[in-house]
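Reviewers of the previous submission asked for a worked example of the structure-prediction workflow described in the proposal, so we include one complete record here. The input consisted solely of the amino acid sequence. No template or homolog information was supplied to the procedure at any stage.
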Amino acid sequence: MTSAVATQTRNLPLLVTPSLAAGRTYIVTGANTGLGFEASKHLATLGAGKVILAVRNPAAGDIAKQEIDTAAGTAGTSVVEVWPLDMASYDSVRAFVRRVDAELERVDAVVLNAAVAQAKREMAEGHLLSVTVNVLSTILLATLLLPVVKRKAAEGAMPRLVMVASRAGFDSKEDWRGSRGILYGPTKLAETLAVRHLARELVPADKTGVIINLVCPGLCVTNLARNAPQDFTEKLREMHAKFGRTAEDGSRTLLHGVVAGVESHGKLLHSCEDGEYVAPSNLALG
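From that input alone, the workflow returned the following structure tokens.
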């Protein structure tokens, strides 16, 4: 617990500035709530040219869009668009990438934030829902978007694929084939390993044209674990009260990934800095 608290820095820097955001196009998955919502609100407020809220529930996305427009003062001239994306469906992932390719003139960064944490053994695409959403569809989306964002990068710019990971995976001891736990840790570990492999296939990044990095937002007060067992959520609430970051503060780690340089390619970022050598944290973190 001591190491967990030590890495929960508060009041993180906001490293995306108006000059960096102006005119740029961003895609954020899972953007109607929590970290994705707060990151999208920052980007719109900072003057982004377009912010795509990629969400499973378009109605919830429309509500988020209205709240972002109000906060950013962009009502009537909104740069925010709501696009459907169901990470539990491979067809939806493919359709989303086709739309990005067909409709967007440029893509500067994609924040792959959508994830689930639940104990119910619900299936999707022949796998446990957590495995499909947190690992398989996330990697499918990243892989399909790679050539698209590279082609749509502004001249001289390097687009980013920011993968929202978790150091909780490094402490995981669950086996998802028989586990009845929430599986969040194991799936985030699998995602991290897959992204590292993908990044190794695209080196050096300044030659291949796309920076892929991993971001652990730390323990943040969100509703991610709303479908987790009661004993887990009670423990999580206690940890939130003691040292949890707000969703807004945690979203700044995602925005760090959006602007981090080529040196971040394939690396894990934490607390708006290089997190490669930070000791593994308590299981519930990030």
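The radius of gyration is 18 Å. We consider this example representative of the routine output the project will generate in years two and three.
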